[in-house]
Design brief:
3 domains; Phosphatase 2c, domain 1; Transferase(Phosphotransferase), domain 1; 7-stranded mixed sheet; Phosphorylase Kinase, domain 1
Length: 563
């Protein structure tokens, strides 16, 4: 059987068109992509009369019911009003129009602290009543699927579920009106659209990216929901965070509740999930949509997964993920990189006490007759009155380092025959270590009645692969070939305003709430840890630092000093 990429229906082997929706099933054949047809289609679309194309909004403020489906994309400066709640309004900062949908950077005009609605968009991004920073949001507008509107109960459930998985952006609202749907999610900070650029990824990168989305789909399936949209439209619901490393679902409005009592319907829902994952894997590996290109474009190690998915050989997304894990990783470079490091810390001219903590250590692991270098590096910046900040940073330093040594270093040193691979140190290892430190800080703060807390950034290097983690506004930079890149993302309110385009980067150092962070260790029992992976090259430099450096020294000056 062959699964339709458009509707998920099963078709007989050899069928050229879907018996359910009529979609072309030919992408499974080994035929070259027909670029001329693509060009003709684009030319035909360009000749459509103007009245069939969406026009930009010109009114400064309009109810959602007057704008959705009529005047997209909305223009910066316009305001979107919820049709069922006139107090819920969003100021559009920027529009990012795609082939089938539009993303908007926006500012929620309802104060998260006092709840007062703002009469207009404040230039400084602060509530006019209590001076709290307003919350940036990301809005995804798409065309609704015919007769597929969600019930209010399902919307509420999906919003709750969105907060329970790291590969799904937390949702705030899903608004359906006529033929369009607006999904409002928490702003992720630095982000990009997956479909922009059409970059081909290596087999390992493509598989890792597809696995991230697959884990989110499996999570939803385990809670009785399936993602029903496949193909190019579904890929537009994915965004990239963390410098093209983390792929996250930004829109669950295409999900539907599983129907276990209806066998054929349930099978079609599961097939849609699998087909979505297969089409994503194809896109990550080729930069092309599966419906528009031949499967021969996919590297041979990945082709088998897509063929099995389209032939209905996977009973669920989880089965496909299990198959992913069986593919061997690319061999490590013949000559692994040898890291060297240095460290420095200073209290500065304002504070008498230095509340930063630093740890660095490296060792070589003997493997296949050669040494594989392993390095661990961490910077923690403590916060709190009296000695609390110093205690917090030293606690984070000790617990995270002990966790890494006990769970990774010692077992490998005691098992000389065991191969040390990059799969042994996923981002989850660093995240678990940092979460252990967070639990200790929370317990101590509750016992002592103190407000101690800490930020942290850490890097674990095995051979030429660096895994980086962070919580708070301590940073990790990568200097490569004359370009300084900030890998981590500041978890501060001001950084969110910059990422959403509400204020400029030059305003950060003078903003009245520049020191307020919304995520750190020691304040909440459940803390989210960002993780990133980088393939290092000879000559690369990683810089880990607290805000004491980057707030006082501009990035250009940091780069000049390092070089």
């Amino acid at each position: 059987m062959i699964t339709c990429l458009k509707c998920g229906a099963q078709n007989r082997r050899g069928a050229k068109f879907c018996s359910s929706c009529g979609a072309d099933l030919s992408p499974l054949s080994a035929t070259p992509s027909n670029k001329s047809k693509k060009v003709k289609r684009q030319a035909k679309d360009a000749k459509l009369p103007a009245k069939t194309r969406p026009l930009p909004s010109t009114a400064p403020t309009q109810p959602l019911s007057q704008t959705i489906g009529r005047l997209p994309p909305l223009q910066p400066g316009s305001t979107l009003t919820h049709p069922q709640n006139s107090h819920r309004r969003y100021s559009i900062v920027a529009a990012h129009e795609l082939a089938r949908s539009t993303y908007y950077d926006a500012l929620d005009l309802t104060c998260p602290s006092c709840g007062s609605p703002q009469p207009h968009t404040p230039a400084d991004g602060l509530c006019q009543q209590c001076r709290t920073t307003l919350q940036p949001v990301l809005i995804h507008e798409r065309r609704a699927r015919p007769n597929k509107h969600l019930s209010e109960t399902d919307i509420e459930q999906l919003i709750r579920l969105s907060a329970g998985h790291p590969n799904i952006l937390p949702h705030r609202a899903i608004v359906q009106y006529q033929e369009s749907v607006y999904t409002v999610v928490e702003h992720p900070g630095r982000w990009g659209v997956l479909v922009r650029g059409q970059r081909q990824r290596s087999p390992d990168e493509a598989l890792a990216g597809a696995a991230q989305v697959g884990q989110a789909l499996a999570y939803l399936h385990g809670r009785d929901f399936a993602h029903l949209e496949v193909g190019g439209a579904s890929i537009e619901s994915l965004i990239i965070t963390g410098g093209e490393r983390s792929i996250r679902l930004a829109d669950l409005s295409t999900c539907a509740r599983l129907q276990p009592g209806a066998g054929d319907v349930l099978r079609a829902q599961i097939n849609s999930n699998v087909a979505f994952l297969a089409s994503l894997l194809f896109y990550l590996a080729t930069g092309e949509e599966l419906q528009r290109a031949g499967i021969e474009l996919v590297p041979a190690p990945l082709r088998i997964f897509i063929e099995r998915a389209m032939q209905g050989q996977y009973a669920s997304v989880q089965d496909m993920l299990t198959d992913f894990a069986l593919m061997p990783s690319a061999p490590p470079p013949a000559r692994p990189l040898k890291p060297s490091h240095g460290q420095a810390t200073h209290p500065g001219q304002k504070h008498p006490r230095n509340e930063d903590a630093v740890v660095t250590f490296t060792f070589d692991k003997e493997q296949d007759g050669r040494a594989v270098p392993v390095g661990f590096y961490l910077v923690a910046d403590g916060m709190g009155g009296h000695d609390a900040g110093d205690v917090a940073s030293r606690t984070v330093n000790k617990i995270v380092t002990d966790w890494i040594i006990k769970t990774k270093v010692l077992p490998d040193l005691q098992k000389t025959t065991r191969k040390l691979t990059t799969e042994d140190v996923p981002g989850e290892l660093l995240a678990q270590a940092i979460q252990q430190a967070n639990g200790a800080l929370v317990s101590r703060a509750q016992a002592e009645g103190s407000d101690l807390g800490s930020t942290v950034t850490a890097a674990l290097i095995i051979g030429s692969v660096a895994t980086i983690a962070s919580t708070g506004d301590s940073r990790t930079y990568l200097l490569r070939e004359g370009r300084l890149e900030q890998i981590t993302q500041d978890h501060s309110l001001v950084a969110r305003l910059v990422d959403a385009g509400v204020i400029g980067p030059e305003d950060v150092r003078s903003h009245p709430q520049r020191n307020q962070i919304y995520r750190c260790l020691g304040h909440d029992a459940d803390v989210e840890v960002d993780t990133f992976t980088r393939q290092l090259r000879a000559g690369d430099v990683l810089l880990l630092c607290s805000d004491g450096l980057w707030e006082m020294v501009l990035d250009d000056e940091i780069q000049r000093i390092i070089e």
